[in-house]
Amino acid sequence: MACSEGELRLDWFPDPEDLMQRWALFIQGFALIAATQPGLSQNAQPAVPQPPAAPPQTAPISVSTIKAATQLVVVDVVVTGKDQRPVHGLKASDFSLTEGKTPQVIKHFEEHSLLTLADASKFPPMPPQPPGVFTNYSPAPANGAVNVLLLDALNTPLKDQAFVRQQLLAYIKTIPPGTRIAIFGLTSRLIVLQSFTADPEVLKSVLTRKLGKASPVLDDAVGGEGIQNSMADDLEDSGADADTVANLRQFEAQTQSFQLQLRAKYTLDAMNEIAHYLAGIPGRKNLIWFSGSFPVNILPDVTGTLPDPFAAMASSEDEFRDTVNLLARSQVAVYPIDARGLFNSPVFDVTTTRNYSGPKGIARMNQDQTKFFNDTAEEQGTMRAMAEATGGRAFVNTNGLTHAVADAIDEGSNFYTLTYSPADYQADGKLHKIKVEVAHPGLNLAYRHGYYADAPASTSPAPHAPVQDAAVANPVGPSSLELMRIAMTRGTPIPTEILMKAAVFPTAPPSQTEDKAATGNVLAPKAKGPYRRYDISYAINPPDIAFLPTGGGKVRADFELIVLVFDPDGAVVNSASEHIHVAAPREELIKAAAHGIQYSLQVSAPAKGEYFFRIAVHDINLDHYGAVEVATSSVSKLTRPAAPPPPPAK
Questions:
Q1: Which of 43, 95, 192, 431 is least crowded, fewest Cβ atoms below 10 Å from its Cβ?
Q2: Which residues contact 554 (CB under 8 A, 6 or more apart)?
Q3: Following DSSP, what letter does each residue of 319-347 receive, concatenated?
Q4: Is residue 177 in a domain?
């Protein structure tokens, strides 16, 4: 199943000669690899080709264990100076940490730092890729934190959504190399618009799409309409009796309250989903949330116009508390950015057409002013509360969204991680307050200020497993199943342990579809045709694959090619995989891999709508992964280029 040399060349690596030197050194190091890798011995026998399967399970070893539960609390601390710039070089001894009033012992301390501009300038630009070719190679190393841009169409008018995209495009032009960013969207549900990538061109292509969508639960979904007369206003102006007008105002207020409750529910549900989604990714995650915001509490009417001012009250405090606790436990710091920028009361806006004439008009104007200030304070208060509870920072009343994004990513990528085990932990469901101080005056600290010590769920972990407050990487590393889940979940950061590229081209024009999927594909029950078939050609970096000696000058390797097809909701609708076993003399392998290890698969995706390929290679012996993610919309209209003609005979 090897591709022809003309289809995939090794020009996606910065220096092919250097690559071949690495490959030769790798071959020479077989004995060392076999000696240091558990289970990879000189006497290892070649694997027998078999159908695609899950990673092999290691046989359990019978050992004595001490059964104990340990609460591990992780606190990421951003330290900035008076100029709001991150402060570097602090030591563990500079920090003191208390829970409640009890001093805690810092068990682990680590500083995370973003690359400086001077360092970033050392890296070459990303090599350009021809249409249909994708790679997980990046000239710059990935930064320690990952960043999620959440474009909130549910709570943001259309005109402000357009402003956000404009500001983000300006930021992408200055993005530091190696910064990993994903883009999510929020309507009445959460959507992954772009998985984690460090390629600015990919981010630009997403932000230039027509992403704007009017919210179904905003009074002014487009924006800029000012304040209009309500039905109750029109009825009052027509001379209707006071009771009828008051009852209609009560109905309108309760309808608006219901809409606000829906917005709060949809938004908090999405935040919960994000927290669960990101919990499996080790380390800090920065959630940069562009929104017109929403109030957690809908306060009683203070204008005096409703018969029952308390009927429109509502509170999402319990859901808000659970959400921010989950975000903090998942090491997700929220940086809300008010997408409306700097704005004034719409009472005096030229687009306002509400009748403010006469004595009743003056009363209406005062009511609208009061409502505007109360709503704004409540909405921005929600932003600040979520930021403070998770260790982020809120950006409100600013039109410089480009600078806000840059500051959020800069702060969220320069931080200190402190962990401790509470001296007297009790799962009492109460808020346990955390206080961090630093032994240098004039510094500002941003961190989560507590956690709720909720009782463990009914499904308890194994007796020997630590009960962790946050998603902390196990010192011995994640399990094989966890590695596979992270590598193959749509939208998660693409693994780069194995450098690879993939060429993705449809096998036929868009008008030609098939009723059945390609041979060897495994369709989900919900998958429906017609389908389009795609050729997926791999080129894999040889030094990243473990080749093991088998005696007689021969070597072997075992790896898998895996492709999952996701729908926009993140559900798998199709999959294809192939187990590759390579065994040959080492000299032949070096010659054959001069342009990378090349194989191909055919995968089908439903012809209607947009779908996403997660294309991966898995080294079974080392349990390493490489992957790329491709949207069908970016390749569905392409035609595979013809292979170059063979060189003329001499």
A1: 43
A2: 583, 584, 585, 586
A3: HHHHHHHHHHHTTEEEEEEETT-S---GG
A4: yes
